[in-house]
Amino acid sequence: MKLLPVVSVLFSVLLAGPAGADETCNSPYMANLIKGQEDYVHVWTLGIQGVGNGQDKLVTIDVNPASPKYGKVIHSVSVPGRGDAHHVGFTEDRKYLWAGRLQDSKIFVFDVGTDPAHPKLVKTINDVVDKSGFVGPHTFYALPGRMLVGFLSNPRDMGGATGMAVYNNKGDVVARYPNPTDKIGDVQGDGYGYDLAINPGRNAMLTSSFTGYNNYRTDLGKLIKDPAAMQKFGNTMVLWDFKAMKPQQIFSTPGAPLEVRWSQAAGDNWAITATALTSKLWLVRPDASGRWQARDVGAIGDPAQTPLPVDMSITADGKGLWVNTFMDGKTRLFDLSNPEAPRQVYEKVTGKHVNMVSQSWDGKRLYITTSLLEHWDLDNDDHFVKLYHWDGRELNQQWKIDFYKEKLGRPHHMKFSAKPAPNVASIR
């Protein structure tokens, strides 16, 4: 199974130019963009035994301040069982939301376009491991007519060596790509995977790395005390020729680099990531000769305390970066005016522990959730979605929804959507 014919067909469309995205981590090829006020936030939520029906679910919150239901849960749709619900991603037309589980590797497809206030489950992909050859669907990245899915593990040894698969929008695998385990240049590939993101102007895709099933399904306290297990985390990023889907360079980035964020500012040509275990920011950009380089450009908090950076959101102008750290419950802002030397300018404790951070395109609103992984979450019931307003100096909390009190479970990943606007231009 090969992707070259698929990418050749898509490539001219992709290079025609992305229009941007409402959340700065989304694929730049999505339609129906929201550059104004989002109406809803969809939250992919872990089911917890004894909390409500105990099932994983997609929860919808009304977030338009003009609505009488502002800051309230207005809908939830459960899926059978629970399996470490993790990340979600839109198809390129924003009509469908793909949601993955890390335990059983199922993918659920929700119709969020027909009635965004009341999503419906329309398809369950049960044969993910058999058809893709990988375990733990993590990142869902929209391409025209396709969904690029990055995985965390493999069925052979349930370790971190993994890869990517391309699905058509019907849910069929059309190609698969293992991450490199050979040496490219001076760096040995470890095959690990986590996030992926594309810079279409440079035909460049970056992938990052984390750990495999055996680790992410182990209790965090037990994992930390196991020296052998702690050695089984990814320490590389890979630069791919996106058109050919071939790895071009491997970068040594010790400590499990997680989210990949390309600057979307005009003229910028760099990406940034954070290493979870070493609490460092890493910059990836070409040097004066045009060869891509990755280097450590700064610390996040005190690395000796292992604050565990888990998610980050780059501002639309590429000049700021919000970073959530799980262990200390802090949200930090870094000035990226000079990406070679990020500078922390703000921090706030936003929870006992925090995970995901989603930022509106205008930078005025920050949504925060708490859950990291089913077996890594800290032993407390403070699980929430919060909205903060950023006035340029301070994060001001607007509301908090207690997911345990609402009997929903543990909130993880979020995506924005808006009310349909018939016969109106798609960009608000």
- Mean pLDDT across all residues, rounded? 92
Query: What structural class do the secondary elements suggest?
Result: mainly beta
Helix content: under 10%
Task: Summarize the main sheet.
Answer: 4 strands, antiparallel
Task: Detail the topology: elements first, then pairings.
Layout: H1 4-14, E1 40-46, E2 57-62, E3 72-78, E4 85-90, E5 96-101, E6 107-111, E7 120-125, H2 128-132, E8 135-143, E9 146-153, E10 163-168, E11 173-178, E12 183-184, E13 187-188, E14 196-199, E15 204-207, H3 213-216, H4 220-224, H5 227-230, E16 236-241, E17 246-252, E18 261-262, E19 271-275, E20 280-286, E21 292-299, E22 309-314, E23 320-325, E24 330-335, E25 343-349, E26 357-359, E27 365-369, E28 384-390, E29 395-402, E30 410-417
Antiparallel strand pairs: 1-2, 1-30, 2-3, 4-5, 5-6, 6-7, 8-9, 9-10, 10-11, 12-13, 14-15, 15-16, 16-17, 18-19, 19-20, 20-21, 22-23, 23-24, 24-25, 26-27, 27-28, 28-29
List key phrases describing it.
428 residues, Methylamine Dehydrogenase, Chain H, four-stranded antiparallel sheet, disordered N terminus, disordered C terminus, methanethiol oxidase activity, selenium binding, Methanethiol oxidase
Structure description:
Keywords: Signal. Belongs to the selenium-binding protein family. This protein has 5 helices and 30 strands. With 428 residues, it is mostly beta strands. The protein has a single domain (4-417), classed as YVTN repeat-like/Quinoprotein amine dehydrogenase (Methylamine Dehydrogenase, Chain H), CATH 2.130.10. The strands form 8 sheets. It has a 4-stranded antiparallel beta sheet with strand order 3-2-1-30, with no helix packed on it. Strands 4-5-6-7 form a 4-stranded antiparallel beta sheet, with no helix packed on it. A 4-stranded antiparallel beta sheet has the order 8-9-10-11. It is globular, with a radius of gyration of 20 Å. The chain starts with a helix and ends in an 11-residue tail after the last strand.
